Amino acid sequence: MNLEQKHWLMKTSKKAKVTLVGAGPGDPDLLTLKGVKALNSADVVLYDALVNEEVLQYVPSTVKLICVGKRAGKHSFTQTEINQLIVEYALDCGHVVRLKGGDPFIFGRGFEELEYVESFGIQVDVVPGISSANAVPASQKIPVTNRGVSQSYWVLTATNSKGELSDEIQLAVQTNATVVILMGVNQLSKIIELYKQHNKHDVPVGIIQDGTLATEKAVYGNVATIEALKDEHNIQAPAIILIGEVVSLKKEVLVNELSNLNYYGN
After folding, report:
1. Which of 4, 33, 214, 239 lies 20 to 30 angstroms, CA to CA, from 266?
2. Whole-structure pTM over 0.85, yes or no?
3. 124 close to 19: Cβ distance less than 8 angstroms
4. Beta strands 204-209 and 217-222: pairing type?
5. DSSP per-residue codes, 169-206
6. Are 140 and 152 in contact (CB under 8 A)?
7. Which domains does the chain have, with CATH numbers?
8. Which are the catalytic amino acids?
């Protein structure tokens, strides 16, 4: 039986409903109250690998939990399979919570899932999540904007749909805005090379791994030094790259000067 047939032959009297919930940047305490309420009322929860499993404490013990996310090349469901699972469980069980890291509409493919589910006439609600783009710098006491330093910030993903370096980064390099790059650690060399081509060797840079978690650590330097810092201290994904003058507002960076190879961690 295909999904269209199941739409008309529902196995349960429960009304199909889907809620897209943003789990936040990692710290379970940063899950919103509205997100908690959605998890409390779920019949099925489909969650991503980057979601901190501590937030699942808000799910009733009788509820089915399914991890559908991918991480570091490990086996995962395709986006098409995830879309189909959301609909199937909604029709079979009732309320499906699709739990995604950060905010579901910021590089989370949340809108793709919303469109697919709504095409079956199923109600979809969205609970925004706190994005790592601003929460992770804040956890390190770095503002992404600050009067007299940065008037705006760009949030970018490092790669396009083909797995190549995003063209948007080439535009961002030419601005004085704060640049926040998600999922970019493996592309760091290419990103740094672009900044060097624009003669921006002294622009401050930070890389923050496991932002908002107890394992959070960070390295700070500038365009000329950050690659050595990253390698020296084994900074790995998941991490964000923060580029711009606001990075120099970090107290330790000001004290030790960006020209030195400094390491800071919690």
Report:
1. 33
2. yes
3. yes
4. antiparallel
5. HHHHTTSSSEEEEES-GGGHHHHHHHHHHTT-TTSEEE
6. no
7. 3-127 (3.40.1010.10), 132-265 (3.30.950.10)
8. 48, 70, 183
